[in-house]
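Hi there, hope your week has been kind to you so far. No rush at all, and the record is pasted right below.
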Amino acid sequence: MDETRRRFLVHALSTGLLVGGAGWSRLALADLFGRVPAPLPEGKSIFRLVGEATVNGRSATMDTLIGPEDRIRTGDQSELVAVVGEDAFILRENSEVELSLSDYARQGLRLLTGAMLNVFGEREANRKLEVRTPTAFTGIRGTGLYTEARAERSYVCNCYGEVELAATAQPGERERIVSRHHDDPRWVLAEPEDGRHILPAPFINHSDMELVLLEALVGRSVPFGAPGRAYPRRRRGY
């Protein structure tokens, strides 16, 4: 676990924000970030920047505007929380992503290395949205998604919603995953194990509180309840 994330979780646990209903409150999140998460004003893309990041090779600041075709990198012990259109994301340390969100019919992003948590706005049925890593292809239908990209394997957790997951090395090997709450994480391998590229994985390295934060930044809410409570109705049709 990277140092930025470790500090985040240590503080959240020490203040009780991950216990019971408190972890689902925007006011609780404000204790971590200094302000209540809410949609950003026009002309703003970045909600939080820890350490160093670049956008198209230029050092990012809190005033940097991120466009739909930009390339973003983070440095050591760094993290970026940002919004582009109806989508929001957390880019972990030592990560690099290329956005491709301008085209109406086919949109996506390519996570070249590192880790990223996304929430995506709902698209019309005829619009394609995809997330790629060196080893995985994920077709998205309005969802929360956590991805880690390495040369030898990727980690994909469909936090909620529906995806179609395929292995880059074997495109015919694919799975349709419908999840309500981190139900079926997967490893996607560059080289097969026991003849398979897609394997079950544990839940790792991301939190529901982060998803609450991201959805709040685009004016939405997560489609699951607090621990111990029944799931509410989904906020959108998957």
In short: The helical segments are 3-14, 26-33, 208-217.
